[in-house]
Amino acid sequence: MKKIILSAAFLAFAGLTTVKANTISTSAIVIQQDSTTKTPVKLEELPDAVKTTLKGDKYKDWAPATAFLVTSADKKEWYQVDLTKEGQTASLKIGKDGVVVE
């Protein structure tokens, strides 16, 4: 009789363990990394097309402060030029061809 009770207790314990094991769920964590890179560029080393855009009528009152060559994850490149004017600051995206990217 002892063997039957012990066997029944063991089976009941194993059944409970199995039920608990089936109710555990797992989740995955996905992390995206921004692979955009910004490389500082000296203002005098900007391409001539970019310099021409900055000297144009629309931006002639703004003074370039810093510039970066930005490369996105899909390998597109443009220049980010930070401008100042009478205490105001602005940032401008300009393609290598001198066209302002909106």
What brief labels describe this structure?
about 100 residues, alpha+beta, Nuclear Transport Factor 2, Chain: A, four-stranded antiparallel β-sheet, 2 helices, 4 strands
Briefly, what CATH class of the domain at 37-94? Alpha Beta
Q: Describe the sheet with the most strands.
A: 4 strands, antiparallel
**Percentage of β-strand residues:** 25-35%
Overall spatial form: globular
Protein name: PepSY-like beta-lactamase-inhibitor
Signal peptide: 1-21
Keywords: Signal
Brief characterization of the structure:
Residues 1-21 form the signal peptide. The protein is α+β, with helices and mostly antiparallel strands.
Q: What this model shows, in words?
A:
This is PepSY-like beta-lactamase-inhibitor. Keywords: Signal. This protein has a four-stranded antiparallel β-sheet with strand order 1-2-3-4, covered by helices on one side. Strand 2 and strand 3 form a beta hairpin. It is α+β, with helices and mostly antiparallel strands and about 100 residues long. The chain is built from two helices and four strands; from the N terminus they run αβαβββ. The chain has a domain of about 60 residues: Roll (Nuclear Transport Factor 2, Chain: A), CATH 3.10.450. Helix content is about 30%, strand content about 30%.
